[in-house]
């Protein structure tokens, strides 16, 4: 058991070390510009990434915004269960994010998704629509990349495809964005 724990921790450290600091600085810059320009930020994902999206939106909308002169306009597209189930039932599960974006998103807004596979049809469809409509698209991915790697404007890919480590790293990236504003380094 101890060896498995040590190996897991070592692999987790390697996954975190694989993320270039320049990519994180660029990500923080995207959020700084969205905040300065009063742009809407949409965050979404599936499964564990959906939970991370909700957490990120909460920390950005409350914690980071509490430290600033104006608030982030942020929304997790995972948080309206009734809307998601209506879209999934009446249209397709592939439409659960794009149809919400159709209601709210405007050119220059930011759409950020989190995905380990990079191939989820609902994420791909939302990003294709977002690109066509002039959204800034950001994807947190694993080293698999997937289809999203070829669509997103900005990619941060963790150098691991293990779901737990990739999702943990995505949450760390989310916290870094928030704390850059909370600790006033952004």
Structural summary, described in words:
With 186 residues, the protein is α/β, with parallel strands linked by helices. The protein has one domain (2-182): Glucose-6-phosphate isomerase like protein, domain 1 (Rossmann fold), CATH 3.40.50.10490. 54% of the residues lie in helices and 13% in strands. It contains 7 helices and 5 strands, in the order H-H-E-H-E-H-H-E-H-E-E-H. The protein has a 5-stranded parallel beta sheet, sandwiched between helices. Helix 6 links the parallel strand 3 and strand 4. Helix 2 (21-36) crosses helix 7 and helix 3 runs parallel beside helix 7 (163-182). The termini are far apart.
Show the helix and strand layout:
Layout: H1 2-17, H2 21-36, E1 40-45, H3 48-66, E2 73-76, H4 81-90, H5 98-104, E3 110-114, H6 121-132, E4 136-141, E5 154-157, H7 163-182
Parallel strand pairs: 1-2, 1-3, 3-4, 4-5
Helix pairs in contact: 2-7, 3-7
